[in-house]
Design goal:
CATH architecture of one domain: 3-Layer(aba) Sandwich
Helix content: 25-40%
Shape: globular
CATH topology of one domain: Rossmann fold
Strand order of the largest sheet: 1-7-8-6-5-2-3-4
Number of helices: 16
Largest sheet: 8 strands, mixed
Structural class: alpha/beta
CATH superfamily of one domain: Vaccinia Virus protein VP39
Number of strands: 8
């Protein structure tokens, strides 16, 4: 695939990420659409004891394939994950919008968006996720799911979409073995952004949801127990969208930042158990691809550190602290970019 040369004068990170207050007041009309889509009860797990080190070690399994997506069983992912930033996303939709959810997983966002807009396509390279999404939408006429890679969406025509959602996808584009290869990460990211620019109508919207390194450090309890070796190894992948290179990439493909939000949402819908119990549950672990990137020694360090910390701290107090951090820092941010047409670019 041919790529455009990157702009040699990139926007700074400060230009790309304006400071905004966390969004805490949901819109009534949007809540109506949200409630209409949530036709199943949220997952609530029974209270469990902390597992012993041997139990955790034997139940943790490597991915079935070479991609970080395949660590999660689709049903577990679907039950435990929650559609992040949905209110901010719905504000960008119109009744006549044609939307692409690129990297849709099990269809959480796509299904809710279909209550607002004319038609939604969801694509994901994990067939298990697509199968799960299709089972949930077999009676919906305005949603279609396709097994495809965001880096090559030749199944769609140029200028087909009004809005494209890319939620927590850009750090998952390469195979697990290449996750620390900065060159391959950038090449895959450029392919994805290039496809988004091709598929959007002029002045269409790209909605990008991504987690900054600071948010990863502050708002995710379990990342604090990843060993330093993992942080050093994965840093270039985790900070991909924070670099000047990424700002230049967006500018090259004519994307202009039009809004930035930091919701207080969580990516998980379970709140019954303590953070310690969740972070040692293999089913919960399977819902975040970051664990697939740890080697055996790093994962052993993680479980040992969680267990040691749980003997010294109160899980209820920790849950309150995490909630406060999520509201002040956010687990991720929602960036809305507008695709400028050629005339805008010339001017």
């Amino acid at each position: 695939m041919q790529h455009a040369e990157l702009d040699t004068e990139p926007e700074t990170l400060q230009d790309r990420e304006p400071k905004t207050e966390p969004d805490t007041a949901p819109d009534t009309q949007l809540n109506t659409a949200l409630n209409a889509a949530l036709n199943t009860a949220p997952y609530t797990a029974p209270p469990t004891r902390l597992q012993t080190e041997s139990q955790t070690a034997t139940t943790f399994q490597c991915p079935r394939s070479n991609t970080v997506y395949s660590l999660a069983e689709a049903s577990q992912y679907d039950n435990m994950r929650s559609p992040f930033g949905i209110n901010e996303i719905l504000r960008e939709l119109r009744p006549d919008s044609i939307v692409l959810d690129a990297g849709c997983a099990t269809g959480h966002h796509a299904i809710i968006m279909s209550n607002i807009c004319q038609f939604v396509y969801g694509v994901d390279k994990n067939q298990d996720h697509i199968d799960c999404a299709m089972r949930k939408t077999n009676i919906r006429a305005n949603v279609k799911f396709v097994n495809a890679d965001i880096c090559n969406l030749s199944c769609f025509e140029d200028g087909q979409f009004d809005v494209i959602l890319v939620s927590q996808v850009l750090h998952h584009l390469v195979d697990k073995g290449d996750i620390c290869d900065e060159s391959k990460n950038r090449s895959a990211c450029q392919s994805a952004i290039s496809e988004c620019a091709r598929l959007l109508k002029p002045k269409g919207k790209l909605i990008l949801i991504t987690t900054s390194l600071y948010q990863r450090q502050q708002s995710y309890h379990f990342f604090q127990f990843f060993p330093e070796t993992a942080w050093r190894r994965l840093r270039s992948n985790w900070t991909l969208t924070e670099t000047e290179w990424f700002s230049a990439l967006l500018r090259t493909y004519r994307f202009r930042l039009s809004a930035c939000h930091t919701p207080s949402d969580s990516h998980w819908n379970e709140t019954e158990r303590s953070p310690y119990e969740r972070c040692l549950d293999p089913s919960w672990i399977s819902t975040d691809g970051a664990f697939a990137l740890l080697n055996e020694a790093e994962f052993s360090h993680y479980t040992r550190s969680i267990r040691n910390d749980s003997t010294q701290n109160d899980g209820v107090k920790l849950a309150r602290e995490l909630e406060a951090k999520r509201r002040s820092v956010g687990e991720a941010s929602v960036y809305v970019y507008t695709l400028r047409d050629e005339l805008d670019t010339i001017i």
